[in-house]
Design brief:
The chain is built from six helices and nine strands; from the N terminus they run E-H-H-H-E-E-E-E-E-E-H-E-E-H-H.
């Protein structure tokens, strides 16, 4: 099994079969369906589309306190929160300011994913958490092979981005 343990998270995809992956993503599906937060991910895929999306995502587990995203880094992975909580901080010249809390059923990293700009804030696990991530290369593959799923995913992430930008306290939570 291939595992990478950089930055406090564990990735282990090689040993997962397609059936196990489809099963595992069901917790993410439920988190998305039941989230009613302002920045809930409005992703309405059918079971087959969720199964397709699962093949382009990698599971990630973080323990409380670990940094998921560092402000200022130029990296574009997007993260879908299955469980746990995350604090989003913006570092100014004086101190660290907590901007927002993000929980299950939402997304992190959508700002840099779309903009190609450095990360605008730091995201830290507020509790033990499970996420699913997708890098731009995997998204491009999804777009070519399953444009309908990629379009739905893009529209859902853009909706979160727009809602965060309209809500002044969450504006800098666009990472």
């Amino acid at each position: 099994m291939h595992t990478a343990t950089g930055r406090g998270y564990l990735i282990g995809m090689d040993a997962l079969s397609s059936a196990a992956l489809r099963y595992d993503i069901q917790c993410l599906v439920q988190a998305v369906r039941h989230c009613n937060a302002l920045d809930a991910l409005p992703l309405t895929l059918n079971e087959g589309q969720w199964s397709t999306l699962a093949h382009y995502l990698q599971p990630l587990s973080l323990t409380q306190g670990h940094i998921l995203i560092d402000q200022g880094t130029k990296e574009r992975t997007v993260y879908f929160v299955e469980s746990g909580s995350f604090t989003v901080h913006y570092q100014d010249t004086r101190s660290r300011i907590r901007i927002a809390m993000v929980g299950p059923g939402s997304v992190l990293g959508e700002g840099a994913f779309f903009s190609h700009l450095p990360r605008s804030a730091t995201v830290q696990a507020g509790s033990d958490s499970r996420l699913w991530c997708m890098n731009p290369l995997r998204f491009r593959e999804l777009s070519v092979r399953h444009p309908d799923v990629a379009l739905e995913l893009t529209l859902a992430m853009a909706s979160v981005l727009a809602r965060r930008m309209q809500n002044k306290p969450k504006r800098v939570a666009v990472t």
